[in-house]
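Might I ask for a little of your time on a matter of protein folding? What I wish to show you is a protein chain and, alongside it, a tokenised description of its three-dimensional fold. I should value your view on which stretches of the chain appear to form regular backbone elements. You will find the record immediately after this paragraph:
***
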Amino acid sequence: MKEDKENTRPKEKRVEIKCEDGEKTEKCKEKKEAMTKIVIRRLPPSLTKEELEEQLQPLPEVDYMEFFSNDTSLFPHLFARAYISFKNQEDIVLFRDRFDGYVFIDNRGQEYPAIVEFAPFQKTAKKRNKKKDSKCGTIAEEQLLFWTS
């Protein structure tokens, strides 16, 4: 009988990784950057970035911090979250020990136990400068030139 495509296991591929000394072996480990970005989930929906920073004090040195308020389209799960990238890996363990399970209380007195874990996507967003639109306001200028001539 033919096997179903859904039930068959994909063929395993052997990957050859070049080590620094030029050997090709499977035992050689790839160079990976250290995981330094964490996410704090299940924060109170009414929490603001300033309030979070106040509650996280003293905060070790960070490269990046981004706060996302609640999303009303996810109705029963209205939680805020924050992403933090630390400069030192040792600080992550201390931060996790301190804030994983930490109970945040919102302005109505409801309790929200937070979850601290590594962020699934370790890259950080780049700050991009918004360029001024060169065409902005040109219609009004054209109309003004038309009426004055």
The chain has a mean pLDDT of 78. Helices lie at 49-55, 90-99, 138-148.
